[in-house]
């Protein structure tokens, strides 16, 4: 007997961000539909022959009375329900005309990024929540023996480049020195409203209350379950489809995927390239930062092929 063929539903959705970047607009689903009463990002199903952006423009006008002026791809999510396969084609709306309101009687609400996680969403929306709350640039710190110079470099990235997500990576440091540096780095990140993730074992977070942990690809592949509570960010380094699948399975919140280009630090490693990167990101199921030879000039290209943004050492660690 053949397995039931699931319906395939293609939906365009919008993360509409306020002008100051601090709030996002969400809407409550009517009580008489699937997942009624839960909150969602506004949007709807594509009509025949519509692109995702065309559908989004139509849906936002019909539902909220607004006109999209500028939007950018955010994330694409494939989600399996028992009776259907959903593709959520999510766009981040930066500029729009009109004051959004529920034209179909639905409740709509501006919610701060800090409060967003407190609202109940359908399971398919959860990766979108992470993508909305994450920035588009991810600094990976370089090695620096001198503590004063390290902190000067980090503060320059936070103050001048406005980096808001930092991974503290320095394999040359012993654990005691690493933890001391983590304390100083966390204080700086807190001052500038940035998040800090540590690179190493989960036990590091018992000593330094950073925002999360970054796993090496080797550590990632050794795990069968998430090693952190949900209140902390969990990220990982990935390089291929198997590692992306493992990261999704154990509940990583986001990952880096590398090397997109050949890099001076690993000239022997074949680059992924933009085409294969896009194919891998399409089914990742979580935000993915492009890593490997990336600069800020690549940010729009990376977003266009499905990345959350770029991760870099050299471009931010001047």
UniProtKB/TrEMBL annotation:
<dbReference type="InterPro" id="IPR013785">
    <property type="entry name" value="Aldolase_TIM"/>
</dbReference>
<feature type="binding site">
    <location>
        <begin position="40"/>
        <end position="43"/>
    </location>
    <ligand>
        <name>8-oxo-dGTP</name>
    </ligand>
</feature>
<keyword id="KW-0460">Magnesium</keyword>
<dbReference type="GO" id="GO:0006260">
    <property type="term" value="P:DNA replication"/>
</dbReference>
<dbReference type="GO" id="GO:0035539">
    <property type="term" value="F:8-oxo-7,8-dihydrodeoxyguanosine triphosphate pyrophosphatase activity"/>
</dbReference>
<dbReference type="Pfam" id="PF02581">
    <property type="entry name" value="TMP-TENI"/>
</dbReference>
<keyword id="KW-0378">Hydrolase</keyword>
<dbReference type="InterPro" id="IPR020084">
    <property type="entry name" value="NUDIX_hydrolase_CS"/>
</dbReference>
<feature type="binding site">
    <location>
        <position position="125"/>
    </location>
    <ligand>
        <name>8-oxo-dGTP</name>
    </ligand>
</feature>
<keyword id="KW-0235">DNA replication</keyword>
<dbReference type="GO" id="GO:0009228">
    <property type="term" value="P:thiamine biosynthetic process"/>
</dbReference>
<dbReference type="InterPro" id="IPR000086">
    <property type="entry name" value="NUDIX_hydrolase_dom"/>
</dbReference>
<dbReference type="InterPro" id="IPR036206">
    <property type="entry name" value="ThiamineP_synth_sf"/>
</dbReference>
<dbReference type="InterPro" id="IPR047127">
    <property type="entry name" value="MutT-like"/>
</dbReference>
<dbReference type="InterPro" id="IPR022998">
    <property type="entry name" value="ThiamineP_synth_TenI"/>
</dbReference>
<dbReference type="GO" id="GO:0046872">
    <property type="term" value="F:metal ion binding"/>
</dbReference>
<dbReference type="GO" id="GO:0006281">
    <property type="term" value="P:DNA repair"/>
</dbReference>
<dbReference type="GO" id="GO:0044716">
    <property type="term" value="F:8-oxo-GDP phosphatase activity"/>
</dbReference>
<feature type="domain" description="Nudix hydrolase">
    <location>
        <begin position="6"/>
        <end position="134"/>
    </location>
</feature>
<keyword id="KW-0234">DNA repair</keyword>
<keyword id="KW-0479">Metal-binding</keyword>
<dbReference type="GO" id="GO:0044715">
    <property type="term" value="F:8-oxo-dGDP phosphatase activity"/>
</dbReference>
<dbReference type="Pfam" id="PF14815">
    <property type="entry name" value="NUDIX_4"/>
</dbReference>
<feature type="binding site">
    <location>
        <position position="29"/>
    </location>
    <ligand>
        <name>8-oxo-dGTP</name>
    </ligand>
</feature>
<dbReference type="InterPro" id="IPR003561">
    <property type="entry name" value="Mutator_MutT"/>
</dbReference>
<dbReference type="GO" id="GO:0008413">
    <property type="term" value="F:8-oxo-7,8-dihydroguanosine triphosphate pyrophosphatase activity"/>
</dbReference>
<protein>
    <recommendedName>
        <fullName>8-oxo-dGTP diphosphatase</fullName>
        <ecNumber>3.6.1.55</ecNumber>
    </recommendedName>
</protein>
<dbReference type="InterPro" id="IPR029119">
    <property type="entry name" value="MutY_C"/>
</dbReference>
<comment type="similarity">
    <text>Belongs to the Nudix hydrolase family.</text>
</comment>
<dbReference type="InterPro" id="IPR015797">
    <property type="entry name" value="NUDIX_hydrolase-like_dom_sf"/>
</dbReference>
<feature type="binding site">
    <location>
        <position position="43"/>
    </location>
    <ligand>
        <name>Mg(2+)</name>
    </ligand>
</feature>
<keyword id="KW-0227">DNA damage</keyword>
<keyword id="KW-0515">Mutator protein</keyword>
<feature type="binding site">
    <location>
        <position position="63"/>
    </location>
    <ligand>
        <name>Mg(2+)</name>
    </ligand>
</feature>
